[in-house]
Design goal:
Blueprint lengths: L4 E3 L2 H7 L21 E3 L33 H14 L20 E2 L26 E2 L6 E7 L26 E2 L2 E2 L17 E12 L5 E12 L23 E7 L6 H5 L3 H5 L18 E3 L1 H5 L6 E3 L11 H13 L15 H9 L17 H12 L12 H12 L10 E2 L5 E2 L2 E2 L8 E2 L7 E3 L17 E3 L9 H4 L14 H6 L6 H8 L3 H13 L1
Antiparallel strand pairs: 1-2, 3-7, 4-8, 5-6, 5-10, 8-9, 11-12, 13-16, 14-15, 17-18
């Protein structure tokens, strides 16, 4: 059964109540045309986007993403609240004799706590370039960072142990992520570059305008980056003659990454794999121009358990490059902050010239292990912060009865946005997530995340040219849309897309290219009122 809402125009219903629409009462052999019914998609009136986990108390609150799932048990709620505390914990340089549980930051890092990149459990603030400035240097307030890797000689088709599972190739003596911050003595030239990490990163913006057929003009911006002063060649820039830094070589690929919202993640992991894979259409068999692909990635949980093929479906990250909330959360803890943990017990820069020199210079006071050889945080911290990210409630939809919102829902389907932003799933009723037992709160929930969790080529305009496992340099995972209407209520400075370039949802739509280009063109050809209706629908999510 096609579960959709059908609405007949009021004038037609009125005609059915009269002997004749003309009102004359004369018997006439006239065929009255029956208008096409207005069909609304099934999700039009849905409010509980996260099923029974949904919070209806978020409203227009600045903490709309920070509510625990409402169906947690008392024991689970206590674990969630412990994770909340840990999520906001700021770490310090080792050693910290007064609070040893807080030390271990870095020695190079991007931020000192989880909340800095996921402000109020949502997106980070987009860096602003002030009037009169050409660019801004990333500092302690930046929630954006650069992924880095070496260009491969060939496209990786299938991952196995021989090719490191198609993982990005680390930059020698740097790794796979650029850390722009450091502890005091992180660098050999620390007296001149105090609290600087592997390199300085500067951001600027390029702009272009887009004009609708009705003459409306929209200015779009794209962030550009410049990397300078790398630790292995202090003072060098890309313009320096005879470049010596490993970081500044021509075959080094770089791409911006913004922090993502962290609510509803457990529900996404609880979607059965087969329900995701049914939307794969790698060769575009249905000829709609959309060829969804799955990313298969290295799974640290499976590897730690001794699995001989530690590969899983990627679900999280901008390129679906992580398989579970556990890998995503604890990988970020070790990577973004520099805090080793049971899943990632080694520093992310272990074995690099920077780390070796730092240990020697500081007398091995910050090795990433405590006096007993244990990582900087243990299972209690790790399990709680992972559970917190798994069980943040999805906010309920708002204003669903408003005519503009309803029309926007209809147009969203008409534009074929739902080909990638798949509206709904029902989560599985058994099994585990991240190698651990799944909370009953996540089981059997009818949810409306509006994503297929798959990869799509979004065109050159959004491409960063950096592959990630099986994802190409122009492919991105479809972002879930639930809660997106509260993004700038939670953080007014937040942007959209992987690098925060879009200040509005309209701008985000206009950046869609590649497989989404047909839908983007169709959106541009709508009337101004219809475009506003689409945005009204998105704001209701």
């Amino acid at each position: 059964m096609n579960n959709r809402h059908v609405l007949l125009p009021a004038f037609f219903i009125g005609c059915l109540q009269l002997s004749a629409c003309g009102g004359s009462g004369d018997a006439q052999d006239v065929d009255t045309p029956i208008p096409e019914p207005i069909v609304y998609p099934e999700y039009t009136d849905i409010t509980a986007s996260g099923g029974a986990t949904t919070t209806f108390d978020a409203g227009n609150s600045g903490h709309g993403f920070s509510t625990p799932s409402v169906n947690l048990t008392a024991t689970e709620l206590a674990l969630h609240m412990a994770g909340d505390k840990f999520f906001e914990t700021s770490f310090t340089t080792a050693p910290n004799a007064e609070h040893p549980e807080l030390d271990g930051l870095g020695p190079v890092f991007n931020n000192a706590n989880c909340n800095a990149c996921h402000q109020r459990d949502g997106r980070n603030s987009t860096p602003q370039v002030s009037a009169g400035q050409a660019r801004v240097k990333l500092g302690s307030d930046a929630g954006i960072f650069l992924r880095i890797s070496k260009a491969a000689n060939d496209v990786c088709i299938k991952g196995d142990v021989s090719n490191d599972y198609c993982a990005p190739i680390p930059v020698p003596d740097f790794g796979g992520q650029l850390f722009h911050r450091g502890v005091l003595q992180a660098r050999g030239d620390w007296q001149q570059n105090q609290f600087i990490g592997q390199a300085d990163v500067y951001l600027s913006y390029d702009t272009k305008s887009v004009t609708y057929p009705d003459g409306t003009e929209v200015l779009l911006k794209k962030p550009l980056f410049e990397v300078e002063n790398p630790y292995d060649a202090p003072g060098e820039t890309k313009q320096s003659p005879n470049l010596t830094s490993n970081l500044l070589q021509d075959d080094v690929l770089m791409g911006w990454r913004n922090g993502m919202p962290v609510f509803g993640l457990g529900l996404l992991e609880a979607i059965a794999q087969e329900d995701i894979l049914q939307h794969v259409d790698e060769n575009d068999a249905n000829h709609d121009g959309i060829s969804a692909r799955a990313n298969y990635v290295f799974d640290a949980v499976k590897a730690q358990a001794g699995d001989q093929e530690p590969v899983s479906l990627g679900r999280f990250g901008w390129k679906a490059n992580t398989p579970s909330v556990r890998v995503q959360s604890l990988g970020a803890l070790r990577g973004d902050i520099g805090i080793t943990n049971p899943l990632f017990p080694d520093e992310s820069i272990k074995g690099t010239a920077l780390h070796d020199a730092y240990l020697t210079r500081t007398g091995f006071i910050d090795t990433g292990e405590d006096e007993n050889g244990a990582p900087e945080v243990g299972a209690e911290f790790s399990d709680a912060v992972v559970f917190y990210a798994e069980t943040l409630a999805v906010p309920a939809r708002r204003n669903v009865a408003q005519p503009n919102v309803r029309e926007g829902a209809r147009l969203f389907t008409q534009l074929n946005c739902t080909a990638c932003h798949v509206p709904s799933y029902t989560t599985k009723t058994s099994g585990d997530i991240g190698g651990r037992a799944m909370s009953d709160s996540l089981k059997g929930q009818k949810i409306y995340p509006f994503t297929d969790l798959l990869l799509h080529d979004m065109g050159e305009g959004l491409a960063d040219g950096r592959p990630d496992f099986l994802a190409s340099g122009s492919e991105w995972r479809t972002r879930p849309l639930w809660g997106i209407g509260l993004t700038q209520t939670v953080n007014p400075q937040a942007g959209f897309l992987h690098d925060g370039r879009a200040a509005t949802l309209e701008e985000a739509i206009l950046w869609h290219g590649g497989e989404a280009e047909k839908s983007q063109i169709a959106f541009m050809n709508l009337s101004k009122n219809e475009r506003e209706q689409v945005i009204a629908f998105l704001m209701s999510l």
